[in-house]
Amino acid sequence: MTNSINELQHDAKAIFLIGTNTTENHPVIGYKIKSNVRKNDAKLIVADPRRTELAEMADVFMQFRPGTDVALVNGMMNVIISEGLMAKEFVAERTEGYEAMTAVVADYTPEVAEKITGVPAEDIRKAARIYAEAKSAALCYAMGVTQHSTGTDNVKSMCNLALLTGNLGKPGAGVNPLRGQNNVQGACDMGALPVVYPAYQPVSNPEVRAKFEKAWGVPLSPNNGITLTAAITKAHHGEIKSILCLGENPMVSDPDQHHVEEALDNLEFLMVQDIFLTETAQKADVVFPAASFAEKDGTFSNTERRVQRVRKAVNTKGAARQDWQIICDLSTRLGYPMSYASPEEIFNEIRTVTPSYAGISYERLEEGSLQWPCPTETHPGTPILHQEKFSRGLGLFHAIHFKEAAELPDGEYPTILTTGRSLYHYHTGSMTRRVEGLNDIMPENELQISPNTAASMHISNGETVRLVTRRGSIELKARLTDTIDDNVVFTYFHFAEAAANVLTNSAPESFDPIAGIPEYKVSAVRIEKITA
Q1: What are phi and psi of 461, to 5 degrees?
Q2: Residues 6 or more apart whose Cβ sits within 8 Å of residue 520
Q3: Distance between CA atoms of 146 and 67, rounded to whole angstroms?
Q4: Contacts of 10 (CB under 8 A, 6+ apart)
Q5: What does the alpha-carbon distance between residue 121 and residue 402 come to, in Å, rounded to a whole number?
Q6: N or C: which end of the chain has fewer CB within 10 A?
Q7: How many other C-beta atoms can be found within 10 angstroms of the C-beta atom of residue 299?
């Protein structure tokens, strides 16, 4: 997030939510948004393929066809430019690439955007005016924006919209991705990405590489690594022989489960490090039992770049050990001696090679959390990014045309499937599906389907149906709901016995070409009635 969570409750005069079911997936943030709308009369714009809880209280709700995010945002920018609502001074002084962007956006009138997205042109105009005319407007998105073959384009479009209206570098504004797990931000900060070292320092930069070679005492490759999805594909082709899987469950979370299973079965060696014997761990040659969050000491970095101390609450059970201890021992056995006395010692090393964390210490965190960048021990942390300038100098507009999803409906598979999360379960369910109370509320997967679509197939509420794609099929109960369009269905991905990712796409063209993210949000499906 460029800004801070509490600004969504107190400072934002307008909030634009796109591709985020915030009250279910980020309920604390969702509460703050509701509070701002109810108590401060903040304007709310919601864009989503489903009518979510926050859509019910929105000033404008745009129910768009899955995968058409770029066309929708281009349509909003067309209105802002044509009506002279852009932040002219901000654009002139703090950005570049404006002319190329406007040349593309000129093609996306609200009427053109309506034909692509299904959103009425007048709603696009209304949303654009609310966002552009607000004193400060915050834009929030989640995996509904990123999990597409055009995910990178989608994110760049969000940045275009914020730049165009000057909604960066000030309170109550910003481009604010809501992270999908509790320490995704921290993992990325620490270099758990294939193209960067900690603090997003490029692997391909010789000066950066030399710094880490000196710190770690080993020569380092100048080549970028590969993403998880690419690793699965290479394992399937026999190009990767071994995978070490830490806290990840690709047997439920990755697209095209049959493809994933074949890839893992093709490995010579699979090691899994996790807190439960997950579906992936059951296929492993070796399983290392790891400590849960409550058994750990260290730091987490949350979605607003806030570094927080985590303190051990209970002792580990059985053979479970701290992740860092397992990694150190494994590294030592593999020939690179790695020895630390504590998580704090590791954190102190992090500070020496990670400029944005340099001023953060355990001693300071005892007094409270800090938001990076925090370059010195006297620096207060940075609640808002880009206040004076952007990290590259000028903010860069991108000229982005709309591209269709990799797989569209046809005669054989006439409906769009989109997937997501429930309030009651988390990720692959390895933790939450072991909780009796949560299972009582939501014991099994379901297919959300519109009453019209259900009636056309003589499907009753609660009836078990079969959902089929080119990759496979699952059986699950239909739930009739008017929150979804007739040509779209929705299901959850938490349930291994009716796994949505049996259905999703693993073809190369379905991955974002830059980020490698799978297109979980658009698959062409067929619904089959099972009972006579």
Answers
A1: -60, 130
A2: 143, 147, 255, 419, 493, 500, 501, 504
A3: 10
A4: 36, 40, 172
A5: 17
A6: C
A7: 21
Question: What CA–CA distances, in Å, run from 203 to 29, 195, 224, 225, 423?
Answer: 34, 6, 6, 9, 38
Q: Are residues 252 and 328 in the same domain?
A: no
DSSP class per residue in 23-44 = HHHSHHHHHHHHHHHHHH--EE
Residues 132 and 194 in one domain: no
Regarding whether 112 and 22 lie in a shared domain, the answer is yes
3-state secondary structure of 259: helix
Co-location of 100 and 145 in the same domain: yes
Answer yes or no: is 379 within a domain.
no
| Residue 201 shares a structural domain with residue 215 | yes
Dihedral of CA atoms 18, 192, 418, 104 in degrees, nearest 10, equals 50
DSSP letter assigned to residue 9? H
Asked if the structure places residue 81 within a domain, the reply is: yes
Query: DSSP secondary-structure letter at 356?
Result: G
CA–CA dist 394, 398 (Å, integer): 13
Q: Do 255 and 332 have their domain in common? A: no
Reduced to 3 states (helix: H, G, I; strand: E, B; else coil), residue 233 is helix
**pLDDT 10s digits, 336-367:** 999 999 999 999 999 999 999 999 999 999 99
Q: What is the pTM of this model?
A: 0.95
The answer to whether residue 396 is domain-embedded is no
Q: With respect to residue 385, please indicate whether it lies within any of the assigned structural domains.
A: no
Q: How far apart are CA 74 and CA 158, in angstroms?
A: 9
Same domain, 33 and 151: yes
Domain total in the chain? 4
Predicted confidence (pLDDT) per residue in 500-523, tens digit? 999 999 998 999 999 899 999 999
Number of Cβ atoms within 10 Å of the Cβ of 342: 13
Q: How confident is the model at residue 182 (pLDDT cuts 50, 70, 90)?
A: confident
